[in-house]
Amino acid sequence: MSKKVVIGIAIGALIIILSVIVAVFLFSEDKLLSAVDAGDVETAVAYYNEKIAPDNDKVQKYKEILGEKLDTILNDYKELYTDYETAEAQARAIKELNIMPKADDVYGKIIALKDSRIAMAAGDSALEQGEYKEAVSEFNKVTDTDLRATADVKIQNAIESYKEKFNREFDSALYGGDYTKAKSLFEEMIDTLPDDKGFRDDQEKKIVDKFKFQLENYEDEMPNAIMLSKELWGFISDEYTRNHYDDLLVEAYSWYSTEYL
What we know:
The protein is mainly alpha-helical. Helix 5 (101-128) packs antiparallel against helix 6 and helix 10 (218-232) crosses helix 11. It has helices spanning 3-38, 41-52, 56-78, 84-95, 101-128, 132-139, 145-175, 179-192, 197-216, 218-232, 239-260.
């Protein structure tokens, strides 16, 4: 056998061997990625630990491949190309390999996005039904960074709608003499808008003005003034105002009792 023939055979054999090696590598890659695509955590972890983890070069290559895969999984879920169940299973298959912090980060973002979408939908539903306090509560649950700005706008809209509704109902109760209902509404307002001092001050002023009118017209209004004092006067936050009108009430009641009781 000539030297050229031997060399040719050797080269051919080498090509075959290299082709087999490449084929095996590609098959390994396909099998792991197929397991990830299927969300098959058990298969992905078992195959990675047995076939890839022992080879550091392969580990580094798969970190790059799977890092790009995580970006695709997250983007597809954001754009609604895939549903939550698919995205969660795929991301978890990579996360459970324990080879990169990015997997935990992406997995957390998928969970946050799912929870935020649920909260946003619940908030929208509550808003449509006029349940503004519930709407604000749901919108506050939105943690996804892409949805947060939208949720903040909806919170402000819900608060403004709540204030309009409160003003209508509170004014009707206060000026209509239903102080028990007015008290209930005021308590709900404090719970709903605990940090909105300006709005609370506006409502307190209504109570003070109404009380002042009643005391100035005590001949006709004394029973109403007593009831208002009992149900609503405790909400007046300014101590001077509260004490001043308490004194006036005592004086007015003294006159009233002398004349009419």
